Amino acid sequence: MSDAAEEAAQEEAAQEDEAAEEAAPTASPVSPDRRRRLLTVLFSVATGVVILDQVTKALAVTYLEPRILAGDGPVPLLGSFLQLTFTRNSGAAFSLLTGFTWIFTAIAVAVAVVIVRTSRRLASLGWALALGGLLGGSLGNLIDRLTREPGFGTGYVVDFLQLPYWPVFNVADMSIVGSAILMVVLTIRGIEYDGGGTAAPATPAE
Predict the structure, then answer these.
(1) What is the mean pLDDT of residues 146-157?
(2) Annotated catalytic residue: which of 33, 72, 159, 194?
(3) What's the whole-model pTM score?
């Protein structure tokens, strides 16, 4: 191949690389006011989840635990489909992997730290909702592990919602799972937390 042909091939390859870089999605600039609003949404959702989770758990301890201990059985809300019961869970969400409380306490702390650090680059309303729900759910169960028996970091988590053929769960668990589903949807649609990817106007995610 002649020198001229090699130079032409190199120039064409360089142009293709430049075109690919220009076509690649980049994070959209976000104004300070919008960033503050998104952070407000994130931490408001997290706070709301924590409050609802802790209030419902306190009610479960006050009213459901004595009922279950007395042998009266669960309280039906939607017949046998959804019932109120009471369990003490030392594992992860939905009573999985019981007996590893310290591990899940550490994971919850790590998740909270990562979300707070990630929030500084937040540019999507959908991700603000998802991360807020995940943070609130993680903190809700973390509070139980830090404050309930048998001790700091190893406390049990209160679960009280029961579906057929499904582990007993609580509000924090619902928030974690719902947030995970929303994250999957956002990822499939190409919506990134920092504003990159393909925007989808006129949807709840943007």
Answers:
(1) 83
(2) 159
(3) 0.75
